[in-house]
Amino acid sequence: MKTIEDLDVAGRRVFVRADLNVPLSNGSITDDGRIRAVAPTIAKLLQAGAKVIVASHLGRPKGEPDPQFSLAPVAVRLGEILGVPVAFATDTVGESAKATVAALADGEVTLLENLRFNAGETAKDDAERGAFADALAGLADLYVGDGFGAVHRKHASVYDLPARLPHAVGDLIATEVGVLKRLTEEVERPYVVVLGGSKVSDKVGVIDNLLGKADRILVGGGMVFTFLAAQGHGVGSSLLQEDQIPVVKEYLKRAEETGVEFVLPVDIAVSGSFPDVKAGAPVEDFQVVDADKIPDGVLGLDIGPKSGELFAAKLADARTVFWNGPAGVFEHPAFAPGTRAIAQALLDSDAFTVVGGGDSAAAVRILGFDETKFGHISTGGGASLEYLEGKTLPGLAALEG
Ligand code: ADP
Ligand code: MG
Questions:
Q1: Dist CA 313 CA 97 (whole Å)
Q2: What is the pLDDT of residue 331?
Q3: What angle do CA 361, 382, 311 make, to 5 degrees?
Q4: Assuming Cys at both sites, which of 41, 228, 238, 306 could form a disulfide with 300, CB separation 3.0 to 4.6 Å?
Q5: Do residues 379 and 171 make contact, with C-beta atoms less than 8 angstroms apart?
Q6: What pLDDT, on a 0 to 100 scale, did the predictor assign at position 347?
Q7: Residue 150 Cβ contacting ligand 1 at under 6 Å
Q8: Does 382 qualify as catalytic in the annotation?
Q9: Which residue, by CA, sits nearest to atom 15 of ligand 1?
Q10: Model pLDDT, residue 186
Q11: Residue 197, pLDDT score
Q12: Which of 325, 356, 382, 395 is catalytic?
């Protein structure tokens, strides 16, 4: 792969595919980690005299403009971090984008509006994606791929566009891949993997691969309930993926055969309804129940305190840890303790610790931990999981050659 140093960027229009998909609440950015992570790449290009065009997706708009997913607040924050004005284009390949790009002087930067406001970005149809990539290619001379959180997506700006322009890998992706290589080649043992979060089906796949690599797998978050159901327990109204139960049963069996230790929570914090995260009001019917005795009608929203201690004990002697997915709905203080316990256990261990995932990384910072104390905080959850699964990532493949 070529790096930025291999490109002659001075005076050229350089398209930087970043991942600026940050969490927003009422239009303000609650965690700017992803913006800070890619800022050095942009700064380096500006320093070298490039005209920089930054592009990203934000959330999941339906292929048309949707103000709640506008990147406008991100342009402001990016400007603050870079210490230079960031011109904002109110479309992706339309009049505004063309005009802002045309107005760029050497060493100036613009951010395009959300790429997913155009249906071509995520289209399954190669021709539709290709047409959007052609239009994006018309804006630039060179391409730098640095949106690690999106490299597992076969999207126009990630996969099709680099084929149309001379390209290089950005410094953020280079760092991310370097760390993940360390987790797939010689890992120091015990190697403990902690999984949680909400996208159960996305994450169940990685277990298949980890069963041959990790020594211990700790399960929290929404995934827990599919495991508990596979063991024959009731899970109330908790997040459950019934179609994954046979798969999970098979994993549990294989883990036993291969000596991989699965650690499931022994207690669960529950409530009758999903908490109001925005208001953060106290949860009246909060209770902690045994994991094998979740009553009907309640939702499991965090691992309980005993499980937090159990997980901490299982992390204490680790030499390598990969963590993806919060242990609970940490956005509400009542359901943050499980995630906090895991973060603290990572810091207390002597392990090389890797935290992957947009929400996991945000959780660490929002809960007040010092991110520099972790070995590496990855900007990509799905991307890092798929890398660890051994899959070919379209956005990395596109940067080869
Ligand atoms: P990441 O972005 O780190 O890969 P995910 O996107 O998979 O993580 O999941 C993060 C979300 O999972 C958080 O917003 C959190 O509220 C949610 N979550 C965690 N535990 C549960 C649970 N038991 N039920 C529902 N949602 C949960
Ligand atoms: Mg997420």
A1: 53
A2: 94
A3: 55
A4: 238
A5: no
A6: 97
A7: no
A8: yes
A9: 329
A10: 82
A11: 92
A12: 382
Q: Is the CB of 115 inside a 6 Å radius of any atom of ligand 1? A: no
Tell me which residues have their CB within 5 A of the ion that is ligand 2. 358-359
Q: What is the pLDDT of residue 388?
A: 87
For ligand 1, say whether the CB of 344 is within 6 Å of any of its atoms: no
Residue 238 burial (CB count, 10 A): 19
3-state secondary structure the chain: CCEHHHCCCCCCEEEEECCCCCCEECCEECCCHHHHHHHHHHHHHHHCCCEEEEECCCCCCCCCCCHHHCCHHHHHHHHHHHCCCEEECCCCCCHHHHHHHHCCCCCCEEECCCHHHCHHHCCCCHHHHHHHHHHHHCCCCEEEECCHHHCCCCCHHHHHHHHHCCEEECHHHHHHHHHHHHHHCCCCCCEEEEECCCCHHHHHHHHHHHCCCCCEEEECHHHHHHHHHHCCCCCCCCCCCHHHHHHHHHHHHHHHHHCCEEECCCEEEEECCCCCCCCCCCCCCCEEEECCCCCCCCEEEEECHHHHHHHHHHHCCCCEEEEECCCCCCCCHHHCHHHHHHHHHHHHCCCEEEEECHHHHHHHHHCCCCHHHCCEECCCCHHHHHHHCCCCCHHHHCCCC
Nearest ligand to the CA atom of 362:
1
pLDDT, position 66: 97
Determine the pLDDT at residue 278: 82
Within the chain, which residues score under 50 in pLDDT?
none
* pLDDT of res. 193: 96
Q: Measuring CA to CA, which residue among 396, 326, 313, 324 is closest to residue 353?
A: 324
Beta partners for 300?
270
| Token pair listed for 346 | 């990572």
> Could you tell which of 34, 271, 278, 359 is best to mutate to test the pocket of ligand 1, judged by most ligand atoms within 8 Å of the CB?
359
